[in-house]
Design a protein that fits this description.
This protein is an alpha+beta fold. It has one domain. Helix content is about 35%, strand content about 25%. The protein is built from six helices and ten strands, in the order ααββαββββαββββαα. The strands form three sheets. It has a six-stranded antiparallel sheet. The protein has a two-stranded antiparallel sheet with strand order 7-8. Strand 1 and strand 2 form a beta hairpin. Helix 1 packs across helix 2. The longest helix is centred in the first third of the chain and has 45 residues. The termini are far apart.
């Protein structure tokens, strides 16, 4: 008997079959690759944290991480403690670097308690407190790891983005921008003020580290505003913890 393949029913059945096959294949690949993806995310976070506290492979003007092979050993060497701050509570958590900041922000919006991961590192006899933060740029998410001392003075930072404009907002991950934050004070007269990414900053060479400002990237005003908001909103949440350090 002749088979008719030009009927609508045949087309629908064929399409359903292909969707099921492709869906099953994608599910299999996602399941198979998940351990690799998770491991890569873990290494990337370790590299980001180390970069912020000055453990990196920078040369000249380029921003360069330590290698993925070195990252786990160096992370164990320099990061002495991982904690999570929950309201007024501080809990040690050796897996704090796996806390998803985006999910914690969403949890807080829904009335839940936000877990704030914080990494305590030591390098050359100095203590660093590295906090991950997340915000919104012009097109999509931006995020950073900011290393602070006990007085909330920035010791280093690493910024990144998902989809900012190349040559403009994407330059937040360039050394000339990130290095400007080193030495900047988050506090002013004891109160949290944050850091403004300021267009028309009166201190373009960034010599004044107590003005709570760094120079903006030309043509990237909205991305800069996102960095400003991210710092003020997220790092302020750590203020109660840093206030406890004053008594130590």
């Amino acid at each position: 008997m002749e088979q008719r393949t030009d009927k609508n029913s045949y087309t629908i059945i064929f399409a359903i079959g292909m969707v099921l096959i492709v869906g099953a294949l994608l599910a299999f690949l996602a399941s198979s690759l998940k351990p690799i993806i998770t491991e890569n995310e873990r290494l990337e976070k370790q590299q980001n944290i180390l970069y912020a506290m000055g453990v990196n492979a920078n040369e000249g003007t380029s921003a360069t991480f330590v290698s993925t092979d070195e990252a786990p050993k160096l992370f164990d060497q320099y990061i002495k403690k991982q904690i999570e701050v929950q309201g007024g509570k501080v809990v040690e958590n050796d897996q704090a670097y796996l806390i998803d900041v985006k999910k914690q922000q969403a949890n807080a919006k829904n009335g839940g308690v936000r877990k704030l991961p914080l990494f305590v590192g030591e390098k050359d006899g100095k203590t660093f407190y590295i906090a991950p933060i997340r915000g919104k740029g012009l097109w999509d998410a931006i995020w950073a790891y900011v290393a602070l001392d006990e007085n909330m003075v920035v010791q280093g930072a690493y910024f990144d983005h998902k989809g900012e404009t190349p040559g403009l907002g994407a330059n937040i991950k360039q050394r000339f921008f990130m290095d400007d934050f080193i030495g900047e004070h988050l506090l002013s007269n004891g109160a949290f003020k944050g850091i403004n990414v300021a267009k028309g900053n009166a201190d373009p060479k960034n010599n004044d580290k107590t003005d709570n400002e760094v120079d903006a990237i030309a043509g990237a005003t909205i991305t800069g505003d996102g960095v400003t908001a991210m710092i003020k909103k997220d790092l302020k949440l750590y203020l109660p913890y840093f206030e406890t350090l004053k008594g130590n």
